[in-house]
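Weekly modeling sync, notes
Attendees: AB, CL, MP (scribe)

Item 1: holo prediction request
CL wants a bound-state model with coenzyme A before deciding which constructs to order. AB pointed out that an apo prediction alone won't tell us much about the pocket. Agreed to run with the ligand included and paste results into these notes for async review.

Input as submitted:
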Amino acid sequence: MSAPARTYPWASHFGGRAVTFRFMRPEDKELFKKFIRSLPRKDNFYLLLDVHNDQAIDSWMKRVESGHIQSVIALENDEIIGYCNLHTNELPWMRHVGEIRMSVSGTHRGRGLGRTLANEIFVLARARGLKKICARMTASQEAAQKIFSSLGFRAEALLSDFVKNENGLTEDLVIMSYDAGEIWGL
Ligand SMILES: CC(C)(COP(=O)(O)OP(=O)(O)OC[C@H]1O[C@@H](n2cnc3c(N)ncnc32)[C@H](O)[C@@H]1OP(=O)(O)O)[C@@H](O)C(=O)NCCC(=O)NCCS
């Protein structure tokens, strides 16, 4: 049994700077758009949408509102500096699966924020009873692989040349997953 999810919002210091963690709300749309569009393209290669498309962001926010995306954001001075999402859907054959996606802005990396955000969402995913939790990332996104490995995920698939960068060069995509067990009992 996993630890119970904590009460939000909560705050802590990372590298001596105060950071607040809370759930994303639909009204955070503009704040989130600013954050996600400020990231270099390569940081978003694991996403399944174009962050520069307003309609894609709108439908993302609708999924936040409906609960199909549960998102914890990290804020410094009311600006988003990182987020971690849990994506689920109600298709009968996939209702036991969740996918985690996350990013921390370049200037705030290496202070433990990514690890903290991933841990928050992982605890929520476990508390919701999800049996299979996965994450996708390019092979070069090593920090993410380190974080997910330490949560107990293992590399389950490698899709060669699956991602093409802005220079036309391809990269492999890694899918990592965590099996919570009792998958057949649902
Ligand atoms: C993954 C990401 C969120 C991590 O954020 P972060 O705030 O820097 O993470 P942390 O500070 O908690 O560091 C996590 C670990 O990664 C390690 N790390 C950081 N950069 C690294 C790199 N380039 N290569 C290998 N390890 C790295 C850190 O040393 C740390 O490990 P440790 O705790 O054992 O020392 C951030 O790098 C990011 O946004 N990357 C681009 C998007 C991405 O890859 N998303 C994942 C897709 S699901």
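Recorded for review: The beta strands are 10-14, 17-23, 69-76, 79-87, 97-104, 132-138, 154-164, 170-179.
Action items: CL to compare against the apo run; MP to circulate these notes.
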